[in-house]
Write a structure and sequence with these properties.
One of its GO terms (biological process) is cardiac muscle cell action potential involved in contraction. Strands 3-11-10-5-6-7 form a six-stranded mixed beta sheet, with no helix packed on it. It contains one helix and eleven strands. The protein has one helix at about 145-195, and strands spanning about 1-10, 10-20, 25, 30, 45-55, 60-70, 70-75, 80-85, 95-100, 110-120, 125-140. It is elongated. Helix content is about 25%, strand content about 40%.
Length: about 200
């Protein structure tokens, strides 16, 4: 599943998708991200967002939330869901929900479904887009592999740059020293030629 980032360039909005997290820490909050970017921003539309949940080891999804006009109509997770999606418009593109106080029972598959209606000049087009999030709940947060690799690369890069800087300083010192020696040699030769 991916998260949407909206950015504004010269008054026009854009929609970009980034990967979402899938590991929650017990007792903390977790953002279940669901997005559906429209291919053509200029086409008006509306969307209803449904969230379903399937417990680990189960075969059936349970309907846990429905959002119409950014108002949650159903919450089967004991009031722990909070809408974090698009606000203030019926043309919802971000359908994210936040789970407060995550428990181990929240482990499982979450299915987010956008029921979008596009209002085209000649007719309406109905589009259904579904996305799944496999959520695992852990006791302590595990560092992301990319974060560990980034930290290692940072220290390696710092060490390499310091060695490079020392090499440049030694090279420059030797070059300046050699030029000074050559200048002194020329001065000595000139004083011997013109006593």
């Amino acid at each position: 599943i991916r998260e949407t980032l909206f950015y504004n360039i010269h008054g026009q909005t854009g929609c970009a998708e980034v990967d979402s997290m899938t590991e929650a820490v017990a007792g903390k909050g977790f953002l279940l991200v669901c997005i559906s970017c429209k291919r053509r921003e200029e086409v008006p539309g509306s969307a209803i967002v449904d969230w379903h949940y399937k417990a680990a080891g189960s075969d059936e999804f349970i309907h846990v939330s429905r959002v119409i006009l950014w108002i949650r109509k159903l919450d089967q997770l004991d009031g722990r869901l909070e809408w974090k999606g698009t606000m203030g418009t019926k043309d919802v593109q971000i359908g994210s929900v936040f789970i407060h106080n995550v428990t181990y029972n929240d482990t499982g598959t979450y299915l987010c479904t956008f029921h979008r209606t596009l209002y085209l000049p000649l007719n309406e087009e109905h589009v259904v887009i579904s996305k799944e999030v496999e959520l695992t709940v852990v006791e302590n947060a595990n560092p992301e592999l990319t974060a560990v690799i980034s930290e290692i690369m940072m220290y390696v890069l710092i060490a390499v740059l310091q060695l490079w800087m020392i090499g440049v300083l030694i090279y420059c010192y030797r070059k300046i020293y050699a030029e000074n020696e050559a200048r002194e040699t020329r001065k000595t030769k000139q004083t011997h030629l013109h006593p």
